[in-house]
Amino acid sequence: MRSFRTVRTLLTIGCLLAVAAPPLVHAQSTAAPARYAADIQRFLDNDKTNPPPKDGIEFIGSSIFRNWTTVAEDMAPLPAFNRAFGGSRTTDVNAYIEKIVLPYKPSIIVYYCGSNDVLDGASGQEIFANFREFEMRVHRALPNTRIYYFAINRAPDKRNRWDVVDQANSLAKQYAYRTANLDYIESNTVLFDAKDEPLTALYKPDGLHFNPPAYVEFTKLIKPVLQRAMMDKKEPATNN
Asked: How far apart are CA 84 and CA 104, in angstroms?
């Protein structure tokens, strides 16, 4: 018969393992989804004639970024380029890391994905776990690439699942605090009024996607952060 001390030790170890265990990922195939094959091929074809800038800033994710068609102009003279594809979920972005992320060796990645996961019924933990997989895979191959997680927006169309949005964002924010070359940018500060209601004029009629003025606000949020990051990367290391 086991002693009380042995049982207590086993229970303690079990609790620690439960806390340390990663959240379950959303039950979706990790294989590259065929419905995005044409989008990805267009990126690859374009790369042959108009390759992304060396050590550039890659915007990656779902339609919130894909619809930001002026991102290169808005971020100029920073070397930004866009590889977001519409309808994508976090698992879809992960499926194409080897094709449209790692080969570019970007200096900085700005990541927005998760809105479609929310609408598809994923939990905040599942969304975060998939983002963490993205971060870990990128940093295994490109340890010096800085990643910015741009918070999932609390769109009117997702109002009944804002708790999921908040959980995913909170987990990503906490993770960024303790992870090298990972930072968090809050998107929702410019999307709400003084009464904490969504600024509906920024949204299209679907209550999910954005009108051009929203991207003006996003530029104000993101560009100064990227400018500072690029300056930091250019500064020579000092020996103390």
From this structure: 14
Beta strands in the chain (DSSP E): 57-61, 80-82, 108-112, 146-150, 182-185
**Burial class of residue 93, CB neighbours in 10 A (0-12, 13-18, 19+):** buried
**Tens-place pLDDT, residues 14-49:** 443 343 334 444 444 456 678 899 999 999 999 999
| Cβ count within 10 A of residue 210 | 19
- The residue length of the chain stands at 240
Q: Class of 50-234 per CATH?
A: alpha beta
Which residue's entry shows tokens 């983002």? 131
Q: Please tell me the pTM assigned to this model.
A: 0.85
Q: What is the pLDDT of residues 81-94, one digit of tens each?
A: 999 998 999 999 99
